[in-house]
Write a structure and sequence with these properties.
By secondary structure, the protein is α+β, with helices and mostly antiparallel strands. It has one domain (14-129, 137-184): Jelly Rolls (Sandwich), CATH 2.60.120.620. The protein has helices spanning 23-30, 57-75, and strands spanning 14-17, 43-44, 81-91, 97-100, 107-112, 122-125, 145-148, 154-159, 163-166, 175-184. The N and C termini lie far apart (53 Å).
Length: 200
């Protein structure tokens, strides 16, 4: 009798592509004001609500639609989830983005207006195991790091509590990414299940 393998508690990550031209949006992003670099960390735009800018209106509609699909298809819910904060990251040669999670957020996302093979990928880190065995072959059960190589105009959505980061940019090219957080709108939870919260 063959053993049955059950893949329990998968982490839902989706990737979609923006089909429209990104030329005007990219020019807008390239001309943003950024905070000063701190010890090699990726620079962050001074505007923390960048998707509220009219120059990114069409892109925001696309992102909101993808969030709605994520909530419906992954969580099986019709609850409305809205973008709370959004910002642009800029990594020059030598810059990196340390491993982190996004607090006070349900679903986080990153949009990449322009990527090439010289730029570092976003990497996701699994919760650390207590014991590490010597492995002869890597698979999704024994790997701690998931490297996600993406193309230009890609949008990735993932649970906000998943640790992620970006290695050092060794390319002479600038690496731009637009990141955002979300939060459910309205009443969260259920009175009968004693999980009710006040409407927001």
């Amino acid at each position: 009798m063959q053993n049955e393998l059950i893949e329990m508690f998968a982490v839902p990550l989706t990737v979609s592509t923006y089909e429209k031209s990104i030329f005007q949006e990219l020019k807008f992003i390239e001309n943003l004001d950024f905070k000063d670099n701190i010890q090699g960390l990726t620079r962050i735009s001074k505007d923390f609500f960048i998707l509220n800018r009219p120059e990114l209106g069409e892109l925001k509609k696309f992102i909101e639609h993808q969030i709605k699909l994520y909530v419906k298809n992954i969580y099986g819910s019709d609850d409305e989830v809205v973008i709370t904060q959004s910002w642009v990251n800029k990594a020059k040669k030598g810059d990196f983005h340390q491993n982190h999670t996004h607090s006070n957020s349900l679903i986080s996302g990153v949009f990449y207006p322009l990527l090439d093979e010289t730029l570092p990928p976003i990497m996701f880190k699994k919760f650390t195991r207590e014991i590490s065995l010597n492995t002869t072959e890597k698979n999704k059960f024994n790997s701690d790091i998931y490297k996600l190589n993406l193309k230009s105009k890609s949008l990735v959505l993932f649970p906000s509590n998943i640790t992620h980061g970006v290695p050092i940019n060794k390319s002479n090219n600038l690496r731009y990414s637009l990141a955002f957080n979300t939060w459910p709108k309205g009443i969260i939870g259920n009175k009968d299940e004693l999980s009710y919260t006040l409407e927001n």
